[in-house]
Amino acid sequence: MTLFQSIHNSGSALTANRFRMDVISSNVANANTTRAQYVDGEWQPYQRKMTRMAPEGATSFNSFLQKAMGKGQSDTQGVKVTEVVPDQTPFKLVYDPTHPDADEEGYVRLPNVDIAKEMVDLMSATRSYEANVTVMNASKNMYMKALEIGK
C-alpha cells in the first residue's frame, strides 16, 4: 500500500457514494411519474434504478482467494460504480379512475419506487460518505503531523 492509497480509496468511495445519492434522488423525484418512457405506443411509469459497486483493481477470483488465504497482498484500489440497473419489481396499481393515465378499468400504474426504502438507502449512502470523509481527514492529519516531525 502506498502512502496515499488510503486517501485514494476514500476518494473513490466518496465519488461512488455521491453517484449513489444522485440515483436515489432521481428515484425520489420520479416517485409519481406515470409517463417516463414511451414503449410500443404506450407510456410506461418510471422504473426504480439501483447502483452496483465493485472493488477497483481486484478483478479475478484468484486474487480474492489468494488474499483471503493470506498469500497475496491486497490489490484493491478503491471502489467504483459498475452499473446502474433497473429494479424489476412490478409497478404499483392504484385505483383512480379520474387520473388521465388510468386504464379502462380505472387503475393507474405507478412507479415501483418505495419512499421508505429510498430513505434507508439514502441514509446508508450518507453514512458511508461521512465515514469516508472522516478517514480522509484522519489520513490528511497524519500526513501533516508526519511533515511536522521533519521541522
Mean pLDDT: 90
H/I helix tally: 3
Give the number of DSSP strands. Answer: 6
Give the termini distance in whole angstroms.
26 Å
Task: State the strand order across the main sheet.
Answer: 1-2
* Helix-strand pattern: HEEEHEEEH
Give the CA-based shape. elongated
Largest β-sheet summary? 2 strands, antiparallel
**How large is the radius of gyration?**
22 Å
What would you call the structural class? alpha+beta
User: Strand-residue fraction?
Assistant: 15-25%
Helix amount, in percent? 40-55%
Low-confidence stretches: none
Could you please describe the fold and organization of this structure?
The protein is an alpha+beta fold. It is 45% helix and 19% strand. Strands 1-2 form a two-stranded antiparallel sheet. A two-stranded antiparallel sheet has the order 3-4.
Give me some keywords for this one.
45% helix; 151 residues; two-stranded antiparallel ribbon; 3 helices; 19% strand; alpha+beta
Quick structural overview:
The chain has 151 residues and is α+β, with helices and mostly antiparallel strands.
List the helices and strands and how they pair.
Layout (H helix, E strand, L loop, with lengths): L4 H25 L7 E3 L2 E3 L4 E7 L5 H8 L10 E8 L5 E4 L11 E4 L4 H35 L2
Helix pairs in contact: 1-3
